[in-house]
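Posting for a labmate who doesn't have an account.
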Amino acid sequence: MENETARPVVVPVPEANIALPGELIMPENPKGLVIFAHGSGSSRMSPRNRFVAGELRRAGFATLLFDLLTEAEAMDRANVFDIPLLGSRVGHALAWADAEPAVQDLAVGLFGASTGAAAALVAAADRPDVVSAVVSRGGRPDLAAEALPRVRAATLLIVGGADHGVIELNEAAYAALTSEARLDIVPGATHLFEEKGALETVVERAAEWFGTHLRT
């Protein structure tokens, strides 16, 4: 897109002696920064998250997509579902953003998909001073469990109307949240929002949520 600046970045994880690759893309005069937490078995190259990120940039938000795990770590399926580990990685991305001159003055939101939604909520609970809003797409916020009552960020849970089983898990998580929250069900959409117009609906609601709650 025109008038965007993109550059590769690395998110350091000192305790593991690793650095996680990512990409920061900024429109002119961004309204805020949205950090993405991808779901199980995915990466920063997730086509759905990249589509959402592109549309959020059209709406005026800077985006950071990064890998929560190294390739070696991702080979161990236990890591893919280790929510405390994934939440800590999102926390490292928040710390990186806080020290990065290009974005350190921007309000921060988190966008999580699948297990990444739980990781985002854990990070939001741990950093209430930093995270202003969270959006979950087809997420498993229930996996954030004990962190949910500690979340202070405004939280939007978006679920497909045909994503049976996951709807009920989101309803339980919604009931456990004590912050401002909303549960949106997209009629006819399945878990990956592959139906015509479904992902566009996610983008529209996410952009509205971040626009309301990210105030620099």
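Reply:
Got it, the structure tokens are right above this. The chain has one domain: 4-213.
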